[in-house]
Amino acid sequence: MTTDQNLMLYAKLAGFRLVVVANRFGCDSDFSRELHDRLIEGLDAAFARIQVMMALERSVLAGEDEFAEYRLQGETEIFGRFTINLLDDLEIDDDTHEYRINGGGWISALTADHSGAEVQFPKSVGLTDEEFGPLVSIIKDITQETGILVDAARVVHGRGAVEDELPQATAHSWCFAARPHAPACLTVDLPIPLSSCARVRLDSRKTISISLRRT
């Protein structure tokens, strides 16, 4: 983008930021206020990206930095993929069968029960227009006018239960440490039938955690 295009985009985003700030005063729930705050933070991050690109454009025109043109190209490509995330950010590594949420630690998606083992990644489920509330029209306008995507989705596990709502084991648990190069699927002898297990998980440290249901 040219400097004029960046200035126009900056002005549009500044206008949307004012609208979001004003709209926040009418929020009737903490969740709605949090969405507004995250959107404001995302717009501020977009401002910072645009400022970097404009500074690099000036360097290219002035010939001050021989690498400025390459850096500008990289920044432009990064900004082309820029997304404002309002809720959960889910990253999936298909090669290692791991995932992480909101930049946290990597978690193995390998699970097992009495029927066998499988790789089961969580899913991102978008918010409904009702959950967005008054932000829904603003977000649509931002994407339409600037091309910046605004994503708002919560991570759900298994059959749709949010991680914090999953039933917790109330009995005992055992951990079996696998050898570093051992296969992911292991056979172990337990003092109880596997059908009594609430969850079996292999984490990134190759440790199998088995939690039992209370009977």
How would you portray this structure in words?
The chain has 215 residues and is of the alpha+beta class. The protein has helices at residues 3-24, 30-62, 68-80, 129-132, 135-146; strands spanning 83-85, 90-93, 98-101, 107-108, 110-113, 116-119, 123-126, 149-151, 153-157, 161-162, 173-177, 197-202, 207-212. The strands form 4 sheets. Strands 6-5-12-13-11 form a 5-stranded antiparallel sheet, with no helix packed on it.
Query: End-to-end distance, in Å?
Result: 64 Å
Helix/strand class: alpha+beta
Overall residue-averaged pLDDT value:
74
Share of helix, binned: 25-40%
Main β sheet profile: 5 strands, antiparallel
Series of H and E elements = HHHEEEEEEEHHEEEEEE
Strand composition percent: 15-25%
Radius of gyration (CA) equals 24 Å
Q: How many DSSP helices?
A: 5
Strand order of the largest sheet: 6-5-12-13-11
| Strand elements, count | 13
Gross morphology is: flat
Poorly predicted runs are 160-199, 202-215
